[in-house]
Amino acid sequence: MIKNERILSGFISVRTALEAKSREVYKVVIDKERYESVIKSGFHAPEKRQYDILRKYEVPTEFVSKEAFTAFCDNPSAGGIAAVAGERLYSSLESLVEQKNAYLVVLDGIEDPFNFGFTLRTLYAAGVDGVILPKRNFFSSDDIVVRSSAGASELLKIAVTDDLTEACRSVKEKGFLLISTDKSEKARDLYRTTVKRPVCLVFGGEKRGISAGITEMSDMVIKVKYPRECHFSLNASSAVSIISFEIARRLAKTPDNIRNLTNNNRFRNT
Predict the structure, then answer these.
(1) Domain 93-264 carries which CATH code?
(2) pTM score, whole prediction
């Protein structure tokens, strides 16, 4: 038994963990019956290619019966591919803030693993250079997080901290524009703000929001202004999608801050 082992299921999850080297991958487990059926078939070219891709990583592979695979990996959409992996490895806060003209995001309070995964997927697609999290076990449901993020959780640079307020202070001292998100009356309309790199967005959860200390030190507090009166607010992942992409659009339109994101899109059209 491997200490703190995690089960990752599905080709995308397994491949991304191997490619990103975001954690140790000790063993790939494959449904032998499905594998043999795919290999013998004159069809299923995409699945055959999946096996070829995994083979190049030279990780120990175990072929098991369909029953054994189901017992090992309780995910009917795994496609007969899973892996035994270690815990997620993190970057240091220092390495994130030392990136030139970085676009960072602080997440606090998004605890549901599906929403957390959806949020990370959005941030990766929006070109975010790193994510800062409080020191809680966000990856306690690794398989759900990796699958719901389509592997983005493994590709993003992620740092954890014991003191989120102090981390935000450090980010600001490095010259980052610190922007908090809030739905209060005092918050500025997202679409009527000016942003520049380096920038750090802070998102709170739907229940607790952002701590007062972080809000007070922020250079700006913004919100999504709804076109109609609503007695409810958007869920966290929806708000993150709107704001992160709008900030990315603003940054891309600033000549001094145009950034080549090619290296962050390794899996495009593959």
Answers:
(1) 3.40.1280.10
(2) 0.88
